Amino acid sequence: MHTAHEQPLRPRPLPRALFFALAPTATWFLVRPLIEPVPSLPALYAAVGFAIFAFLAALYLVPALGPTFIRANLKGKDLLKTYDTPIPESQGLICASIYILLLILFIPYAFSESITNHHDTSKRAPEGLVVNEFPHHQLAVYLSSLLSLLMATMLGFLDDVFDIRWRHKLPIPIIASIPLLIVYYSERGATDVVVPIPLRWLLGTLVNLGPLYYVYMSLLSTFCTNSINILAGINGSEVSQAVVIALSVILNDLLFLPWAFGFNIPLPLHVTDGLKVGGVWSAGMAYGSRVLVERHLFSLYFMLPLLGVCLGFMYHNWYPARAFPGDTLCYVTGMAFAVVGIQAHFSKTLLLFFLPQIFNFVLSCPQLFGLVPCPRHRVPRFDPETQLLYPSRAEFKEKRPSALASFVLRMFSALGLVELSLDERTGEIVQTTNLTILNVFLLRFGPMREDSLTRVLIATQVCGSLVAFFVRYGLAGLVYDGNRR
After folding, report:
1. Read out DSSP for 182-226?
2. For residues 266 and 302, what is the distance between their CA atoms, to the nearest angstrom?
3. Count of CB atoms within 10 A of residue 132's CB?
4. For residue 365, what is the enclosing H or E element?
5. Residue 433: strand pairing partners
6. What does pTM read for this prediction?
7. pLDDT-based confidence at residue 60 (cuts at 50, 70, 90)
8. CB neighbours of 46 closer than 8 A, spacing ≥ 6?
9. 325: three-class secondary structure by DSSP
């Protein structure tokens, strides 16, 4: 039997034909908005072009800069392999740098129409009252989002270097969200929430949360960032989550754009008349609202380059991984999702795309908050003989499980989420499988290869997004009237 350590880990080949095919395509998308007649959504063309360049940059720069990280001692051993080949870590820093640099280069495209109109108006002789203001608020929103992403990158890299403990790293993203909250407050952002129909007899139609709404937004950024980080440990897990969630957000944004055509998507259970998409400025789910269209365009401007850079990195992070993302990639992708959810005002829809992460976070809480012992690594256990992964375990060595811990673990065991080992004499819990969704998969489906486990995780994320779309556009009408996001 040939084991992995007998075969040296070679870099993955970089397809030259792909570069020569995609680079001109990306250039065309960047040049097209500058050519008459200008398309109806010129900045969206540029965003697609930058997304392609983000993909190519990540694809070629990650292997080129990997040896530099190894020389700086930013390297590690793959715990689920038999070979000792050093793998460059913190490669999320490369991805974050590409992503933020392209978002900065995108600024002239995002505001080109406003710049042109402002310049032309200053040349014309004013007749009567002429008001043509530059959209300072939109620019402030965009720049504050960039600042939050930069802070997330810095904090994520510090986490990679200093290896901050879980209990201390959970609140770190709150710091990175401060620019978002300040700009939201300075523009007198709404803090009202619509009450579901069944509760309106008690609370009314609207409830003003005031400062609690800002607490909610800061916690949203914390959850989006750490929930991806918690669900990690196998090759391709972090970046594949980001890819599926980014694709889900992009598809949701496309429903609100002013397509020149229209169609209707029927939904089951007859809870609505279906999903109407398209029709120029009726803009599908935007129902003629230019504000909604602009918000979802803003989301697309951030999500398309993110998808590109994650797909490029995924090529090198797939099993067997040639590069590790580190916490930096988790921080940046999570903060990017929080940015679009907060700034484009669809935070409830965004949380629906995190259903697997919500499940994994709830399952992990007893270990994260000290009820159950939490080892340094909760990754599945690797058997070198069979090359398969098995559920890893946590032991109660220093102290006996509390009554609350025993109750929670026995409840999880009854649901088939954990496997417990009991003391034959006292019946107390002495060992439990680690509380992660990856170990649940191994419990329910049996031992499997690492790449198979990643595919199961991706399939679960896709199914979660399908459920999210059905709940958002099929069932939301049962508890909300109108288009509540």
Report:
1. HHHHHTT---EEEPPGGGHHHH-SEEE-THHHHHHHHHHHHHHHH
2. 30
3. 11
4. helix 355-368
5. 393
6. 0.90
7. very high
8. 29, 30, 33, 106, 109
9. coil
